[in-house]
Amino acid sequence: MLRLKHRGPDWSGIYQHGDFYLAHQRLAIIDPASGDQPLFNEDKKIVVTVNGEIYNHEQLRKLMPNHKFRTGSDCDVIAHLYEEYGENFVDMLDGVFSFVLLDTRDNSFLAARDAIGITPLYIGWGLDGSIWISSELKGLNDDCEHFEAFPPGHLYSSKNGGLRRWYNPAWFSEAIPSTPYDPLVLRRAFENAVIKRLMTDVPFGVLLSGGLDSSLVASVTARYLAGTKAAKQWGAQLHSFCVGLEGSPDLKAAREVADFLGTVHHEFHFTVQDGIDAIEDVIYHIETYDVTTIRASTPMFLMSRKIKSLGVKMVISGEGADEIFGGYLYFHKAPNKEEFHKETCRKIKALHQYDCLRANKATSAWGLEARVPFLDKEFINVAMSIDPESKMIKHDQGRIEKWVLRKAFDDEEQPYLPKHILYRQKEQFSDGVGYSWIDGLKAHAGQHNSASLTVPGGPSIACSTAKAIEWDASWSNNLDPSGRAAIGVHNSAYKDHLPGVANGNMDTKIINNVPRMIGVGAAAELTIRS
Known about the structure:
By secondary structure, the protein is of the alpha/beta class. The chain is built from 18 helices and 16 strands. The chain has helices spanning about 55-60, 75-85, 185-195, 210-225, 230-235, 250-260, 270-285, 290-310, 320-325, 335-350, 355-365, 375-385, 405-410, 420, 430, 435-445, 450-455, 510, and strands at about 10-15, 20-25, 40, 45-55, 95-105, 110-115, 120-125, 130-135, 145-150, 155, 165, 205, 240-245, 265-270, 315, 370. The strands form four sheets. Strands 3-4-5-6-10-11 form a six-stranded antiparallel β-sheet. Helix 4 packs parallel to helix 6, helix 7 (about 270-285) crosses helix 8 (about 290-310) and helix 7 (about 270-285) packs across helix 16. The longest helix is centred in the middle third of the chain and has 19 residues, at about 290-310. The protein starts with 10 loop residues before the first strand and ends in an 18-residue tail after the last helix. The model is unreliable at about 495-530 (pLDDT under 50).
């Protein structure tokens, strides 16, 4: 469990039932006094470990008046919902979560991950037929023959065998929607998404880069904080946090937004060398080699450490808007509304590998939780039902990227933001913290990458040079130095694709035939075994 202690420094809980193990590291946000895990139903026959926040837990409790809840934790409803509704309760949860539930009455278990994959989850299989589930790859690497990402919006049921999708919104099919754009409907949907994320029993703040997305998060939070339970506990003046190199675009814009909103603003600086020194730790925690993710995770990682040192345990952030509204600058070249919409669908589906991974793991490395209202289920439904013609970038009509979002909050009487901030061009986070961060990182890699220059590389078929691949068009889709990759030449050539490449998921028959489960865990917990 020590490998994941950073994710939950407030409590360690372990439960054993026969060959089943559930372990949990808790970061206490709701009901810190009594919400320690694992959580149970009344007779303790149903056991749950959870990483996440269930924003509608109070409404769900009212649906079960005959149940007695042991704690005030928002996650306490999960065991009771299962007892009342069976495996189909997952879609009732409004929030973010990764959980494992053990039913000791029949030794069955259930694991599930939230709709978009805001919380991380991985599943692995041991040589002895055991199944392992963990919030991070570090919990599986030493004990599993094979492991992979637990797909968002899915659940794994030992009763039914294998994974099945529980999240099936209309946009997932990528069919083109036709609902007319209504700026007030979109505005209210986002305000509701932010308001529900003000549920907290610990000090919190907002991440404020000065870009459109984080600035809207900060603005809506500041506007509705007064009168909430959080304001009564921690005060009605919002704290905001920004990180960047000296003189970076984000620092300047964030200061201006903070002054406009009246937040208590905290500005953290880092140098290129600070970032370079942190990269090894960043990769250890975020568990990816994706270039853009590492570039953006590094300043977020450094900032999260500073934020946690101030006693703050939760922040609200702006991830997800660019995917939903086509905010990346390449969307300027989208050929038509159909391609525009389909690309936004693809981007949302992939978020768990990129921005969600970064936002969760870069903050969790220091025991800090990040909440992302743009990825609220109901808000996504509203935003993705808009006719994508309204989202298209049209310079002749004065419509820049994310125009529908900007227009929704363009209020002359009660402005949410300064006009030039509301219409500030998109800056990717790794750029906005200071252009010299990426430039400096590239220069460092160039100076310290001598070993790679000694290794030959490039595409090859059957030991060919890169140029020879042009001789046959089919070869470019089957790159491998093996002689069998020479389709049309080798007698035993690969038929359609390289073996093991086409399907990234383990065959469900293998899953179905697993005879028993040795260990399971979820959330900030690590699966263990004796």
